Amino acid sequence: MADNGTALQDLNDRSREVFRRVVEGYLETGEPVGSRTLTRQLSEKISAATVRNVMQDLEFMGLLDSPHVSAGRIPTHLGLRMFVDGILEVGEVDETDRTRIEAGLARNDQDVGALLDRVGGVLSAITRGASLVLSPKHEAPIRHVEFVGLAPDRALVVLVFADGQVENRLFTPPPGQTPSSMREAANFLNAIAEGRSLGDLRSAIGAEIDRRRAELDLLAADLIEQGLAQWDDGPVHRERLIVRGRSNLIEGAVAEDLERIRILFDDLERTRDLADFIELTEQGEGVRIFIGSENKLFSLSGSSLVVSPYMNADRKVIGAVGVIGPTRLNYGRIVPIVDYTAQLVGRLLSGQPGG
């Protein structure tokens, strides 16, 4: 793959303008852009034959492609990447969009899940694409832990967090548990858990059990370890991916797009790939744009993803918001929308005033 910076420098003014006009025309209409159309738009008066020669050069560089037998050209993924990195001008979020985002998130409640559901709905409605919202891991310190026996082969671990949220998780306890061993296990955990997040507790508890095993009843130690396995269950660490507006991707789609959209929907259901989505949000601040195969999660569908992390008051990435759609997204409008929404979500979750 060519270096995008070098490719831009290699283009003269005429080639650069032809390239920009082709990409802008494609992003606006989704259709190939032909030489006759460009001849009427260019600031320099040149013939259609000259424009065709320039387009052929751009095609040779891997920036444009000619679909089917059309005389027009569309940008390749490399071309779109070069346009986004070197030519696209992104301003502030439009005042109308800003007002709609703020109005959609204005309700003052303490339910993080409800807030993030609204974020997804607002993003989807404004952009007419599908929205993605990755909810944060629960990192609040633990206030209290309790084990509750439900049946010989079923138990409940109750986690009470410092922010007031409560999580109940079912698991299969070791055989032979008694009320006293459950109390002993809970007492042990509560002695070391307070002030620690679940992640901190997971990393500390194994060594602590080994060090204090002689003080613990064997059943209580087994119960703690079984409960710990339940807390560690699943590859996504209890993040949740919220998807809104899938029908928007189907509206106006042509026949050959429908199979790509079906593949995209399949991708969105594969929560095992959430780790990839999380990783891409944690590689720095600001909006990131993934075009086609650049994002493994959506590579087969050839879609584009515009995503931005949101952070807590300590500037730690705790989740992400994004918009996914065809590669001909209106990047100039959607990038500031995603950026502003991520900043607003971070402020709301940190208890800071919006605006």
TrEMBL record:
UniProt keyword terms in alphabetical order: Repressor, Stress response, Transcription, Transcription regulation
Occurrences of domain Heat-inducible transcription repressor HrcA C-terminal (ranges): 115-335
InterPro entries for the chain: GAF-like_dom_sf, HrcA, HrcA_C, WH-like_DNA-bd_sf, WH_DNA-bd_sf, WHTH_transcript_rep_HrcA_IDD
Keyword Cell division: no
GO molecular function: DNA binding
A GO biological process held by the record: negative regulation of DNA-templated transcription
Family of the protein in this entry: Belongs to the HrcA family.
NCBIfam families membership: hrcA (TIGR00331)
Reported function: Negative regulator of class I heat shock genes (grpE-dnaK-dnaJ and groELS operons). Prevents heat-shock induction of these operons.
Name by which UniProt lists this protein: Heat-inducible transcription repressor HrcA
Name of the gene this protein is made from: hrcA
